[in-house]
Amino acid sequence: MAPLRFSANLSWLFPELPGLPARLRAAGSSGFEAVEVAWPYAEPPEALARAAREAGLRLVLINTPPGDQEKGEMGLGAVPGRQAAFREGLEQAVRYAKALGCPRIHLMAGRVPQGADRIAVKAEMEIVFLENLRHAAGVLAEADLVGLLEPINTRITDPQYFLDTPQQAAAILQKVGRPNLQLQMDIFHWQIMDGNLTGNIQEFLPIVGHVQVAQVPGRGEPSSPGELNFPYLFQLLEDEGYKGFVGCEYQPRGEGWPWGRELWRDWTGAVFSLWAEMPRPPSPYRRHSRGLELATFILG
């Protein structure tokens, strides 16, 4: 039973820093050895790859481009009439993934078109999504990459998003039937849409390729007040044999990486400080291939 491995989501953490190179340096100096980022496309891939190497980091996840955000787009995979744009964005994502050594790409489904009724267009959007996913699976296989589908909750975060439950995503994956397409489990979204996290994790974990975490409902770090029992959930992921990364995709309460500047109460009730006052590599919070070994104390 391997301890969990954590990755810093640079689209959310270190918001006080203006660009990805600076956030890469901050993640590296905070003890991470893995990061993820939604859209790295504002920076040349070679420059990002160099900055990641210099920071001692590896990229583990990026997203396909969102489309035209000024027109309200948030992914194109299931959007009728945008198949060509989705495939162009996929090619761009593959180029970046190869340059960055990133093994996974989140294939964003996108939103129900403005003014359309979700129920009325569901069948058409699923047909488009299946077609695009079959194409994507072939492209990704040639580059030895994995594509991920992430349900995003429609109750709070994005009411128009097409893919919003793990059940819907798993059914689509089954219809596509390609082994290099997997499920992305964001516990924040799953809790809001369906709850039943124990049952859903146990049912769907065999097809999960990446996990992300944030507290509910405020989307803060796992230690912030909320309805999720992260000691239990982290232990459950370990017990079920999850071996991928756990992405820290949340809104930090302060600047940057809050666990580095404030007291963290471990799951047994002891209080200790991470990184703020300790030399690096501190023991027992040692740097290693899994990023921060929080599991040593958090999970026992």
From TrEMBL:
Its EC number is 5.3.1.22. Pfam families: AP_endonuc_2 (PF01261). Belongs to the hyi family. This is Putative hydroxypyruvate isomerase. Residues 25-266 form the Xylose isomerase-like TIM barrel domain. PANTHER family: HYDROXYPYRUVATE ISOMERASE-RELATED, ISOMERASE. It comes from the Eukaryota. The active site is at 150 (proton donor/acceptor), 249 (proton donor/acceptor). Catalyzes the reversible isomerization between hydroxypyruvate and 2-hydroxy-3-oxopropanoate (also termed tartronate semialdehyde). Gene3D superfamilies: Divalent-metal-dependent TIM barrel enzymes. Keywords: Isomerase. It comes from Macaca fascicularis (Crab-eating macaque). It catalyses: 3-hydroxypyruvate = 2-hydroxy-3-oxopropanoate. One of its GO terms (biological process) is glyoxylate metabolic process. GO terms for molecular function: hydroxypyruvate isomerase activity. It is an enzyme of class 5 (isomerase).
